[in-house]
């Protein structure tokens, strides 16, 4: 079958799909649609070779990225969409790719993603709704089981959020999100997507980030790491001996004992330092704190 013979290639332009189904983007749903199929195929390719792979997509809207994932050879795509208006448009794609697209109508924050994967080699590739993007990411990174059920995450965020995910220690954007991502994954900012590529155009540039799990990630209770980073970055202008006092009354001595400079600020402490603090917190008696 040549490209021109592929039923997916013969689907109407996305602008026509949006008009036909009354799919004007809704701010309340964090929607900004990508209509450039060359760009959506670039995002799909950023997810790595897709043949034989099951892909989970969150917030497909009219299905631009969904089409691209299928055209780039994904074995199967499971698309999770909350907006009932988009379901008929997605069904048209399913008809053009028989047996390769499953549509799940529901809230992305309540989905059992591992259950949808059903043990298949799975990747998540998505232009995430901006209003839930960080919550979804922290959920995928913070699970108890590691390595996770997913093989990689290729996700679009607001550029500011993307920079927070990949920031190294000492960078202005380094914070809780960078520590969480750095603990369990290798995270890379791949490329930017200008606002004009979207309908409607957001007020910010977007960026695509790829995260791959570290199979040898240090075992630390996620809740303990969350408490340590919340305390440290909640008062990031203070020295650690002060910002961590809600967790350890004599935080200065605790830091000194494990080889961390008590006068350091959170933005200078690397991921290994935060993991050491999280292990200590998890091993000790309960402490009051965030």
Descriptive overview:
The protein is of the alpha/beta class and 290 residues long. The protein folds into 2 domains: 3-213, Vaccinia Virus protein VP39 (Rossmann fold), CATH 3.40.50; 222-283, rRNA adenine dimethylase, C-terminal domain (Helicase, Ruva Protein, domain 3), CATH 1.10.8. The chain is 36% helix and 18% strand. The protein has helices at residues 14-20, 37-46, 64-71, 87-96, 113-117, 133-141, 159-166, 176-184, 222-234, 240-243, 251-257, 271-283; strands spanning 33-34, 54-58, 76-81, 101-105, 122-127, 150-158, 185-193, 198-199, 206-213. Strand 5 (122-127), helix 6 (133-141) and strand 6 form a beta-alpha-beta unit. Helix 2 (37-46) crosses helix 3. The longest helix is centred in the C-terminal third of the chain and has 13 residues, at 222-234. The radius of gyration is 21 Å and the shape is elongated. 42% of the residues are buried. The mean pLDDT is 92.
Keywords:
single chain; 290 residues; alpha/beta; Rossmann fold; Helicase, Ruva Protein, domain 3; two-stranded antiparallel ribbon; 12 helices; 36% helix
Low-pLDDT runs of 5+ residues are: none
Q: Please indicate the percent range of residues in DSSP E strands (runs of 2 or more).
A: 15-25%
Number of domains: 2
Q: Determine the CATH topology of the largest domain.
A: Rossmann fold
Level-1 CATH class name of the largest domain: Alpha Beta
Q: Strand count, sense and closure of the main sheet?
A: 7 strands, mixed
Q: From N to C, what is the helix and strand string?
A: HEHEHEHEHEHEHHEEEHHHH
Measured between the Cα atoms of the first and last residue, the distance is 58 Å
CATH architecture of the largest domain: 3-Layer(aba) Sandwich
Radius of gyration over all CA atoms, rounded: 21 Å
Please estimate the helix content.
25-40%
Corresponding CATH superfamily of the largest domain = Vaccinia Virus protein VP39
Give me the count of strands: 9
What is the chains' assembly state?
Answer: single chain
* SSE class: alpha/beta
Mean pLDDT score, rounded?
92
């Amino acid at each position: 079958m040549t490209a021109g013979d592929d039923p997916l290639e013969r689907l109407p332009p996305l602008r026509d799909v949006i008009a036909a189904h009354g799919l004007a983007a809704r701010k309340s749903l964090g929607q900004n649609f990508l209509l450039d199929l060359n760009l959506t195929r670039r995002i799909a390719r950023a997810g790595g070779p897709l043949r034989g792979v099951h892909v989970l997509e969150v917030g497909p809207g009219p299905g631009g990225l969904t089409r691209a994932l299928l055209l780039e050879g994904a074995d199967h795509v499971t698309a999770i969409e909350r907006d009932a208006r988009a379901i008929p448009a997605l069904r048209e794609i399913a008809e053009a790719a028989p047996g390769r697209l499953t549509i799940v109508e529901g809230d992305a924050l309540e989905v059992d993603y591992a259950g949808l994967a059903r043990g298949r080699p799975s990747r998540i590739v998505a232009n995430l709704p901006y209003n839930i993007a960080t919550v979804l990411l922290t959920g995928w990174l913070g699970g108890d089981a590691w390595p996770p059920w997913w093989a990689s995450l290729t996700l679009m965020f607001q550029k500011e959020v993307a920079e927070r995910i990949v920031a190294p220690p000492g960078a202005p954007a380094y914070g809780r999100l960078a520590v969480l991502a750095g603990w369990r994954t290798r995270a890379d900012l791949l490329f930017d997507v200008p606002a004009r590529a979207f309908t409607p155009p957001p007020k910010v540039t977007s960026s695509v980030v790829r995260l791959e799990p570290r199979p040898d990630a240090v075992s630390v209770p996620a809740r303990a790491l969350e408490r340590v980073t919340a305390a440290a970055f909640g008062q990031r202008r203070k020295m650690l001996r002060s910002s961590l006092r809600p967790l350890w009354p004599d935080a200065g001595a605790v830091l000194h004992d494990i080889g961390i400079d008590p006068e350091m600020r959170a933005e200078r402490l690397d991921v290994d330092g935060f993991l050491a603090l999280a292990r200590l917190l998890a091993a000790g008696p309960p402490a009051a704190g965030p």
